[in-house]
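Hi support team,

I'm opening this ticket because the web form for multi-chain structure prediction keeps timing out on my end. I have pasted the exact lines I submitted so you can reproduce it. The total is 817 residues across three entries, so I didn't expect it to be a heavy job. Is there a limit I'm missing, or should I split the entries? Thanks in advance, R.K.
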Amino acid sequence: MNVITDHLSEFGDGLLLTVELTLLSLAGALVAGIVVAAMRVSPVRVLRAAGMAYVEVLQNIPLLVWLVIAVFGLPEIGVIAGLFTTSVVVIVLYQGAYTAEAIRSGINAVPAGQGEAARALGLTFTQSLRLVVLPQALRTVVQPLGNIAIMTLMNTALAAAVGVVELTSAANRVNLAEAKPIWIFVTAGLAYMALSGLLGLTTGVLERKWAILR
Amino acid sequence: MVRTSARKRWAVPVAVAALSLAGLTACSDGDSGSSVPGAAGGGKQDDLIAAAPVAANLPAGSTMEKIKKRGQLVIGGSLDAPLLSQQNPGTKKVEGLDADFGRLLAKYIIGKPEVKIVNSASETREALLSNGTVDVVFQTYSITPERAKQVAFAGPYYSSGLVIATKKDKTGIAAPADLKGKTVIAGANTPAIAAIKKVAPDAKIVTFGTDPECVQALKQGRGDAYVQDEALLLATAKQDPTVKIQGKPFTSDPYGIGLKHGDTQMKQFVNDWLKQIQASGLWAKTWKNSIGTVVEGEAPQPPALGSAPGSE
Amino acid sequence: MSAPSSRLLFDEPGPRARRRIRVATTLSVLAGIVLVALALRQFADNGQMAADRWRPYGTWPMWRYLLEGLWSTLQAAAVSIAIAAAAGVVLALGRVSPSRWLRIPPAAYVEIVRTIPALLLVYIVLFALPRYGVDLPLFWKLVVPLSVSNAAAFAEIFRAGIRSVERGQLEAGLALGLTRGRAMRTVVLPQAARRVLPSLVSQSAGLLKDTSLGYVVSYAELLYSGKVLANFNHLLIQTYLVIALIYLVINASLAKLARTLEARQRNRPSRAARTAVAAAVPTAATDAGNS
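Hello R.K., no limit was hit. The queue was backed up. Here is the completed structure from your submission:
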């Protein structure tokens, strides 16, 4: 077990980076998801088409391919950012597509009468979306969003492939030096399980507080 | 319109089963390795093979005899190491120093350059040799006393080392000591990581999966320097004028031919073969054919057999 | 499902709304064009648009090589899907069994495995198992971790399907004198599998994307083939863009298949089927909250 205690700082740094990646990605993906979901139900046809194309393109190419393309391709179109920043942006956009789909299904679950009532009160599209439909939609999809949050945590591991030394990468590096793979990878696995557990608990609390079951 | 008939009800499970069968049969013939018919392909390799020796007789019951009976030498190697063992997508042939030596050894044992290259991650080579998945490993396999506890090494057959590359206009990095406090790029899971930590413990190491990714990262300024095997960097610097090699190799990595631990008979046999091809000039020709295409001048002196600790 | 839902938030636009929609359309199209043009110009300035950097991808040998990689991707995906789906059925049957002792292990498996990144499982198979004498062929080094992690997702989908089948179906089977196992197999499972077919297809598409981890394993699937190719021709960005395109075409077709199946299912009158599908899409429905 002293492989772990000897390399506590490496594991700690990796864990911290994984947490940062996850939290930033979750916040970003929620914003991206709301924007794209709003586009997909908007009255402007071009925006609907763009939203749909966004979801199709983002969801149908593996995250690993997106990461590699972004890290090495973006500097070629003049966008130069660090590895961590690039990874966060890519994961935000990728998970944003999944979040958008979840939120859209929530919007579809809001009874049509709610939208009609909002319009009857004279609210514009944006107002009825923001004040009436979205708050209800988000509350119906707490559980699916929780699942997406866990998926996001899992996917942050792929940032290891583009040089971000998060938890998985840290474990791999410690293993290269110490060659005690079982202890090292089991520790990393337990850390991921703990983080997922926290995400699951948070989802559960939010669910009990907010959820509207339909 | 879709009515559930009794026959249709099982359509899904049956389809899944059929799919799995199709997958299983398909994978049995096209799995990990890539079969490389040695006779195919062009000019220079053919000359090498034509001039290559064949062993007079194989000891009865030896590993070599088993390989000859099988008619194919199974090699643990790479498909993505330019100049050493790189697959040519056009011809599917694996080219480079390690690949050529593998074919020469196959001809020495079997009489024909029949090889199968099993693409292997560097961490699993010891296991591949000990459970008999591969006969030999030709894969920039540095001889170390630690590894020699698990595998037998013939050779060394080539000596290389790590060098530092930077962008052409970069100054201030000429020696390993200059890496201190810098951001250094290295290939993931390569010996460069440990070597950098040794010469510059406080350097920040950034790793990428492949050599082209590392080169691209260097050019895009994601690191101050890139540490990699000399042969690979020579090829890069030759092809890309914006990359420059700084100084001489700062490590010495004697490459060995990995064999099953304890197989002294085969180790002796492979060393005899190395002696023969060094004496006949075939070693130098093989070098010219691969690394010699990017390095000026004559072939270097091959390292003395058994000279590296771990290969005695 | 987009056509009726978008009616929810706006009426048939009148003249003023139509004008505003036109303005918004023009602005967003213009913004899109400007962004793409800027990106392309910078891309060209860096020499990445040069014809000789793209020409190799107009030749057959390059495509043949990539298509062979794609074939390996499909093989790895097909075998992983078969294993994960079979294991998923077993796990799901365990989770709905009346015996607590049969319920707990599958539940534990699902809850543990779905919280471990697939990449970490790959590393374990790649680096840890060989130290204990288990060195799988490359194909299985990719397929085993993918099957292990996706089995949990498939189990949850099948469980959602089984739950969606009305209890009466099972009871009717039992009343006819079938054993519980036989009733499950011949009555409940076939209906469940049909109902969750769209989710099974989209989970399979996700698994196909996961095979890109072959890049780490060095199993010669599509992305790894791209890695070898980029090593050979030094055209890193072009190669990865071509590969992204191939993935897009394959996965978009799978996604379309899933939607078609879903639409067909929606035409059928069963309400339970719809709820099952809604519960399992887009990610496998799981009960993280009550575990």
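A quick check on our side: DSSP finds ten helices and no strands in chain A. Let us know if the file doesn't open in your viewer.
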